[in-house]
Specification:
Low-confidence stretches: 208-236
Helix content: 40-55%
Radius of gyration: 21 Å
Oligomer: single chain
Number of helices: 12
Structural class: alpha/beta
Mean pLDDT: 85
Largest sheet: 4 strands, parallel
Distance between the termini: 45 Å
Order of helices and strands: EHEHEHEHHHHHHHHH
Shape: elongated
């Protein structure tokens, strides 16, 4: 199998170079093709929208070859729409790192609950701390943006997976017990209260116009004004000690 991005074309509406390249790959033995609907230069802040139209034209051109769609899959609804266009499969990457339950057709757990579930698996599989930390950063993006002290602790001070779990407990029990900055789902179809400002996937992407005038940190200041002064380090240490005692 091969995975490709769209090739730059002389005409913005053209996709012939990408089709020709994929036909060459198939002739060389590739049994399936995964196409990402952006060019190589469309990345991070410059990502822009994936071109599903060009992806569909590639699918039509590669007769008899399974084609997997990738790019712009932000929620389960996007995956279903791509499947309806005739693709043989759908791949997501960044959106799944943000919400591992992306493809679920059941009620989505919150990001913090997903993070806890992931940390349990990480313990059982001896996952490296840096890998676990990286995944936690993505799932906890909204909470960490609202509480930079916790973000700094996750970046600099945790020494074990249990320490990461203790930070999640601190968010739930001390800093944000009403889960104002937690997140469920990946769209309002998944959860009516879905807010892309709290989503790692949407950090470089355009927000819906109704949200552009609102600042995450306005909510942060309101929340922090209701929270007593705290020593975060000692709070985390106490939570970790309680977790160790319970074990």
């Amino acid at each position: 199998s091969v995975k490709v991005r769209l090739l730059p074309e002389d005409d913005d509406d053209d996709v012939s170079k990408t089709i020709a390249a994929c036909e060459t790959l198939v002739a060389a033995g590739a049994g399936r093709v995964c196409v990402h609907g952006r060019t190589r230069k469309q990345n991070k802040q410059l990502a822009g929208a994936a071109d599903w139209g060009k992806m569909s034209r590639l699918k039509e051109a590669l007769v008899g070859v399974p084609v997997i769609a990738n790019g712009g899959v932000s929620c389960r609804g996007d995956a279903l729409r791509l499947a309806s266009l005739g693709f043989d499969g759908v791949m997501s990457s960044e959106a799944l790192l943000d919400n591992p339950a992306l493809f679920s057709d059941e009620a989505h757990p919150s990001r913090r609950d997903l993070c806890r579930e992931y940390l349990d698996l990480a313990r059982d599989t001896d996952t490296l701390l840096n890998n676990a930390r990286a995944h936690a950063f993505k799932m906890l993006h909204g909470s960490l943006s609202a509480f930079p002290d916790v973000r700094d602790d996750l970046a600099r001070h945790v020494r074990s997976i249990d320490d990461i779990a203790a930070l999640v407990d601190t968010l739930d029990t001390v800093l944000d017990p009403h889960r104002v900055f937690d997140l469920k789902g990946s769209s309002t179809d998944d959860d009516p209260d879905f807010d892309p400002r709290f989503s790692w996937y949407w950090r470089h992407r355009n927000k819906p116009p109704c949200l552009e005038s609102q600042s995450l940190f306005q909510f942060q200041r309101q929340s922090q004004s209701q929270t007593n002064a705290r020593d975060l380090t000692s709070t985390v240490a106490a939570a970790a000690a309680a977790a160790a005692a319970a074990a």
